[in-house]
Design goal:
Helix content is 74%, strand content 2%. By secondary structure, the protein is mainly alpha-helical. It has a single domain (3-414), classed as MFS general substrate transporter like domains (Growth Hormone, Chain: A, Up-down Bundle). A two-stranded antiparallel sheet has the order 1-2. Helix 2 crosses helix 6 and helix 8 runs parallel beside helix 15.
Length: 423
């Protein structure tokens, strides 16, 4: 495929990846925004375990990423980009069905498990299973989306620009998701007035939308990108972990996704624990955070001359300063502003981590998904710390500060390529 052909042929596939990235972002934050409502509706009898159990909703979602990474990478090599996308979308429908089953079970055959003083509805456990399945689906989608955005050649754009444009689509989804949950699914009612039955129609609607997307993707031409996968039966000469910039990039993804989700998913819980005007503005803080990521990505998509490592270093530096200021002042609004600087991190890390990896790129993409485990572990640890501190979230943000400092290290030093793939 010559350069001119690739520029023409990849326009529609590129747009498709942007739309799918929107879907991934939207569903990820919808799942996170279920935390507070489900805590109110299903976990009123959980006692001192409320915060820990609540953040399990996010934990199981992101646990799916490392467990799916190897499967997804092999699927791309065997089934191609298009085949992997279709299977990921079908898995997504399955996860939404599990969500629906959780709602119906609680409405028509409620049951509870007792652990000491805690009483936990079986429906909550089914909901966790649904979060895992949908997380698996979004992991499969991202294993395709991220390397495709970097590698497909669209006229007038660089790899990191295409990542930023795709990330902007992702951020549109994450920005509207909090209002979709609070305003459309739950009708803007107070937490204490929410009912589980309000979830039935939205889940059915999402299933229909995803089914339509599957039909569209099946009809699209999504060409393989030469030099990004290994041929069937071909043995790779090097172990994927021998590339230090990729290995350190996995750790960077771990901390980035961890700190992103800690703020995006838990800022509303933090604000509500503070009470007063902060509690009343909890949803606004979450939307400001995700909206800041959208604005940042739109701006960064025009910065073709600024390298990925510079973008990451500057963003991590400012995020670190904002975290420290929030810790000192106890002001959660400063955490919401961090989204503006988190906006460039995923694209920067991914672009740097697959630099000069050639036919190892598809496997590297799957390997990087292992790092998404941070989105499961760090918010869970933060919730456990909040419970251990009597429900206070204030000093749990030190965990996020540690992550920001590592991201600064990767942007300054860790990204450097010491070994590249043999052509």
């Amino acid at each position: 495929m010559n350069n001119k052909q690739s520029q023409v042929n990849y326009l529609v596939p590129f747009a498709t990846m942007v739309v799918l990235f929107f879907l991934v972002g939207f569903l990820t934050v919808v799942n996170q925004q279920f935390q507070a409502p489900l805590k109110s509706v299903l976990l009123s009898g959980a006692g001192s375990l409320k915060n820990t159990l609540t953040v399990l909703i996010t934990f199981v979602w992101f646990m799916a990423y490392p467990l799916t990474s190897g499967i997804g990478a092999r699927m791309v090599d065997k089934r191609g980009y298009k085949g992997t996308l279709v299977r990921g979308l079908m898995t997504l429908v399955g996860g939404l069905i599990v969500f629906e089953l959780a709602v119906l079970q609680h409405l028509y055959a409620p049951a509870y498990l007792t652990f000491g003083e805690a009483s936990i509805p079986v429906a909550f456990l089914i909901f966790l299973a649904g979060s895992y399945v949908v997380g698996t689906a979004t992991a499969l989608l991202q294993i395709v989306i991220n390397p495709y955005l970097v590698a497909c050649n669209v006229a007038g754009t660089s790899g990191i620009q295409r990542q930023m444009i795709g990330g902007s689509g992702n951020s549109i989804g994450t920005t509207i998701a909090p209002y979709f949950v609070s305003g459309i699914i739950f009708g803007g009612v107070a937490l204490e007035s929410i009912t589980i039955g309000q979830l039935i129609a939205p889940f059915i609607g999402l299933m229909v939308v995803v089914a339509i997307i599957i039909l569209i993707v099946k009809k699209l031409s999504l060409p393989q990108i030469e030099g990004t996968t290994n041929e069937s039966g071909e043995k790779l000469e090097k172990n994927i972990w021998s590339f230090s910039h990729l290995k350190l990039g996995v750790v960077a993804i771990f901390f980035y996704v961890g700190v992103e989700v800690c703020i995006g998913a838990n800022i509303n819980l933090y604000a509500e624990s503070l009470g007063g005007s902060y509690a009343a503005a909890a949803v606004k803080m979450a939307s400001l955070y995700w909206g800041g990521m959208l604005v940042g990505r739109l701006i960064a998509s025009t910065l073709s001359k600024i390298s990925a490592n510079i973008q990451l270093s500057v963003a991590a530096s400012v995020a670190t300063v904002l975290l420290i200021a929030s810790l000192v002042t106890g002001n959660p609004w400063l955490l919401a502003v961090v989204g503006l600087f988190h906006s460039v991190m995923w694209s920067s890390i991914f672009t740097l981590a697959i630099e000069k990896l050639g036919k190892y790129i598809s496997k590297a993409s799957g390997t990087l998904m292992i790092g998404v485990l941070g989105g499961a572990l760090l918010p869970l640890i933060q919730g456990m710390l909040a419970d251990a501190m009597g429900g206070s979230w204030t000093y749990t943000w030190i965990l996020v500060l540690v992550g920001e400092i590592y991201l600064l290290y990767y942007g300054l030093i860790g990204y450097k390529v010491k070994q590249q793939a043999v052509k």
